[in-house]
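ok new one. same drill as before - structure tokens go in, u give me an amino acid for every spot. 345 of them this time. try not to just spam alanines like last time pls lmao
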């Protein structure tokens, strides 16, 4: 099999009665697998190239095990051994390229590449993923197709049990698939699969992290990290604060928080924030917000839209308690600041 491949994973999942994939768990997905491994797997399962999710029989699992052994991958051999004899559906997903996903197993592989820190947010193609993720009842007995849920609930009652439906969503919680090292999560239901949590991250009980979003270093999160938002090392999000996701109102600006920043309690962010910036508690800054710029002496320089300050470091955004206007204070002189603000004109 010629050429470099993007990723592959041996997964175990859940299918509906109609045979549709509901979810897939990949214990140890492989990023940039060796050509020798892909060649061995191709011979074992008849893989012809491209991006493909191949449902495996028990005999094929044996062949896959032998292929991993031939390629010298003992970790994947151990996964095969753990799966031997299972009655649950198995799949081998091989991605020749990071192109738009074409199946549910492909989406789940990519989401787990994110949550296992093998790729960073915005480092993988997730175009069209929503159409491939079924809406699923996530229960104490696993994923259940919504059309099958009423009968499953009835059968559970008939056996003296209650089927606990924990959520109805396209995304499961991350911790049912991976718990990255060196993190804390107060309420696991508030972190979706596809979140990227760097070592040193603490998500408090009111914190929330969406897919293709998360932290790149040590961070205390007591607010919301929306879809696509990335928080830099050493930045904290105060209780109840919000970051505007790339899905909000058709917004296509990637919101990010630089390093060493603080977003205060109940504040909000709708622009990319540079390093060492602070947004005062209770203040929501959107791209269109009119902001009065003050220099290091507190003197007014000019009034600009907040979007003009996107990505600039060492800024303090605050609300003037006397006149209600939004102000931004900087440690730069008026001359330096004006040069930066208008360098793009």
């Amino acid at each position: 099999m010629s050429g470099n491949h993007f990723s592959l994973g041996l997964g175990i999942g859940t299918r509906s009665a109609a045979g549709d994939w509901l979810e897939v768990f990949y214990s140890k997905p492989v990023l940039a697998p060796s050509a020798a491994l892909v060649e061995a797997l191709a011979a074992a399962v008849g893989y012809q190239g491209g991006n493909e999710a191949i449902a495996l029989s028990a005999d094929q699992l044996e062949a896959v095990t032998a292929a991993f052994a031939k390629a010298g991958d003992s970790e994947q051999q151990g996964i095969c051994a753990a799966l031997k004899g299972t009655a649950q559906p198995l799949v081998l997903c091989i991605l020749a390229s990071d192109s738009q996903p074409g199946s549910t197993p492909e989406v789940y592989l990519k989401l787990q590449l994110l949550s296992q820190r093998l790729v960073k947010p915005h480092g993988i193609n997730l175009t069209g993923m929503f159409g491939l993720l079924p809406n699923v009842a996530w229960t104490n007995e696993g994923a259940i197709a919504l059309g099958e849920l009423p009968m499953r609930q009835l059968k559970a009652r008939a056996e003296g049990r209650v089927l606990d439906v924990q959520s109805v969503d396209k995304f499961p919680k991350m911790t049912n698939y991976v718990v990255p090292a060196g993190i804390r999560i107060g309420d696991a239901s508030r972190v979706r699969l596809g979140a990227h949590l760097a070592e040193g991250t603490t998500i408090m009980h009111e914190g929330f992290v969406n897919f293709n979003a998360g932290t790149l270093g040590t961070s205390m999160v007591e607010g919301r990290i929306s879809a696509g938002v990335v928080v830099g090392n050493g930045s904290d999000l105060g209780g109840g604060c919000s970051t505007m996701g790339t899905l909000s109102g058709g917004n296509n600006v990637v919101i990010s928080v630089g390093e060493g920043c603080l977003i205060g309690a109940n504040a909000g962010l709708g622009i990319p924030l540079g390093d060492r910036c602070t947004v005062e508690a209770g203040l929501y800054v959107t791209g269109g917000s009119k902001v009065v710029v003050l220099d290091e002496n507190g003197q007014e320089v000019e009034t600009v839209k907040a979007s003009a300050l996107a990505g600039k470091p060492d800024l303090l955004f605050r609300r003037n308690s006397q006149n209600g206007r939004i102000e931004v204070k900087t440690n730069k002189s008026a001359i330096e600041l004006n040069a930066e603000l208008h360098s793009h004109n």
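The chain has six helices and 27 strands. and btw Helices lie at 35-45, 58-70, 74-83, 104-115, 149-158, 334-341.
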